[in-house]
Amino acid sequence: MGTEQRPASQTAIGVALLRAIHETCDSLPKLHRDPVAPLLVGDEMMRRAKAAPERMQGALAVSIRSHVALRSRYAEDQLCDAASQGVRQYVILGAGYDTFAYRQPTWAASLRIFEVDHVASQQEKIERLRSAGIAVPPNVTFVPADFENATLHETLTNGGVDIELPTFFACLGVMVYLRKEAVDAIFREVASFPKGSRIVFTFSQGESSPGLSALAKKAAAAGEPFRTYYDPDILRRDLLETGYSRVAILAPEEAAELYYSGTGVGLPPPRRAAIACACV
């Protein structure tokens, strides 16, 4: 299916809604702050969500909301660290309704931010930004992409990414929807970037729990089925063989200690590894 035929992602706006609910409804302190998400989602979608208790306090909803907030927090913490070490390019693969660029802190002003996504999703996001009165910062570039049918190298170079510079990549909530060949191509492309580059990404271990099975069914019903799963140990081994110097998979115990224990955050910590950072 060509990029011009695919509709905008429905799961992407659902993820934005989860971030918006966390921002506006969960108690302080927040795991991740995102005041832009409610503006992109819009009042009507927020109203409908708040009127559905299962969207707010159901066990599955709360668990997924925690995961979504955690992955954004972890990715942005890693980005801050990379920027402090001189990285000046930030590439968001499958950007969806990511809002970092529209609430960027002062330390991000020196970054060039590339939002890479399917053109229909980008167009809808741009329209939502316009409707909300949110300006696109001058350091942001939208790069149209088709991860299944075009090479990532060509997509990035055509979009203005300098492949000679250390670069930070984020790929959150994307890889599970791609064929393994497309995921492997992403890993190889990032590994070809200069030393100091890194990628933060999420992955799924499979449908071994009722929650994940239910989520997979919802995604499939939206026309975006889950396709690729990974065993963490095999994933780490494969990435090291691909050329990464270090692979850190965020264990549930580590996530609980870093982001939940003693913080007062009212969301549950993860029960399984689903977030990783690989350094070139």
List keywords for this structure.
280 residues, alpha/beta, seven-stranded mixed beta sheet, 44% helix, globular
Tell me what the structure shows.
The protein contains 11 helices and 7 strands. By secondary structure, it is of the alpha/beta class. Strand 2 (about 110-115), helix 6 (about 120-130) and strand 3 (about 140-145) form a beta-alpha-beta unit. The model has no long low-confidence stretch (mean pLDDT about 90).
Give the topology.
Blueprint: H1 10-24, H2 37-41, H3 43-50, H4 53-56, H5 59-84, E1 89-93, E2 112-117, H6 119-131, E3 140-144, H7 152-158, E4 167-171, H8 180-191, E5 198-202, H9 210-221, H10 232-242, E6 246-249, H11 252-260, E7 275-279
Parallel strand pairs: 1-2, 1-4, 2-3, 4-5
Antiparallel strand pairs: 5-7, 6-7
Mean pLDDT: 92
Helix content: 40-55%
User: Which descriptor suits the 3D outline?
Assistant: globular
Number of strands: 7
Major β-sheet profile: 7 strands, mixed
Give the termini distance in whole angstroms.
Answer: 33 Å
Biggest sheet, spatial arrangement of strands:
3-2-1-4-5-7-6
If helices are DSSP runs of H or I spanning 4 or more residues, what is the number of helices?
11
Percent in strands: 5-15%
Radius of gyration: 18 Å
- H-E order: HHHHHEEHEHEHEHHEHE
Name the poorly predicted regions.
none
Q: Helices and strands: which structural class?
A: alpha/beta
Concise description?
The chain is of the alpha/beta class. The chain has eleven helices and seven strands. It has helices at 10-24, 37-41, 43-50, 53-56, 59-84, 119-131, 152-158, 180-191, 210-221, 232-242, 252-260; strands at 89-93, 112-117, 140-144, 167-171, 198-202, 246-249, 275-279.
